């Protein structure tokens, strides 16, 4: 097999870039959900794609099931789940008008609670470590 074909096959394999265990909201000792941040090379567009895959506990079998489709993480540089498992903080980085801008979003379930925008003048870049 040619090296290009081997590379194309290997690039199709998604890698895990990070993840979280999220406590159940009921407080009844139910198993945690799993949030995986995955990355995969898009060879047709020559870019890396990052997406979130949720793996949820199933009450009927006691096992886990993945959501049918992942959620793409556009411009997300970092994310973290609160210790309670209720809130999600998302840091987005993008270029706007020739300047690098970052914003911090706080999510509660499927609802955006607040967004704080930063243009780098009042606050430097947000350090995200290895997340």
Radius of gyration from the alpha-carbon trace, in angstroms: 18 Å
On the 0 to 100 scale, the average pLDDT is 84
Helix content: under 10%
| Class of secondary structure makeup | mainly beta
How are helices and strands ordered from N to C? HEEEEEEEEE
Number of strands: 9
**Cα separation of the termini:** 36 Å
Characterize the overall form: flat
Please provide a written account of the structure.
The chain is mainly beta and 131 residues long. The chain has one helix and nine strands. Strands 1, 2, 3, 4 and 5 form a five-stranded antiparallel sheet that branches. It has a four-stranded antiparallel sheet with strand order 6-7-8-9, with no helix packed on it. A hairpin with a 2-residue loop joins strand 7 and strand 8 (99-108). The longest helix is centred in the N-terminal third of the chain and has 9 residues, at 3-11. The model has no long low-confidence stretch (mean pLDDT 84).
Summarize the structure.
With 131 residues, this protein is mainly beta. The protein has one helix and nine strands.
Index terms:
131 residues; mainly beta; four-stranded antiparallel sheet; 9 strands
Give the helices and strands, then pairings.
Blueprint: H1 3-11, E1 15-22, E2 33-42, E3 47-57, E4 64-66, E5 71-72, E6 76-81, E7 87-96, E8 99-108, E9 111-118
Antiparallel strand pairs: 1-2, 2-3, 3-4, 3-5, 6-7, 7-8, 8-9
